[in-house]
Write the structure tokens for this entry.
Amino acid sequence: MESVLKRLRILEEGISEVRKIPIPTWFHNLETPEEISLIRQAKREHHPVFAELSGEALMELNHEAFWKGIAEGIIDRISYSPRLESFLQKAVENSLISPENVQKLAVFS
């Protein structure tokens, strides 16, 4: 896995480009709470950014920031992983996420 600082630098550069030229842009394979925070800020500034969280990162780290990002609509989709469906079902059962939020997410392979 790339260093967190390198990943953040690359994401910051991408968001900076969107700030200059507001073209809708997807940021894929996000893996850290810090990346979610940068996307949150860009969305608060009304920039046309969209976020895809790594399904593997969600399951491995199970970080509160990911669940909050999903609930707030910061995360637009989750990349597919074979165990993801059952993981999300358990998250609903444990009240980490609402069924409505799961339905809003697009899960892609």
Q: What stands out?
A: The CA atoms of residues 55 and 84 lie 7 Å apart. The radius of gyration is 14 Å. The helical segments are 4-20, 33-44, 55-61, 64-71, 84-93, 99-104.
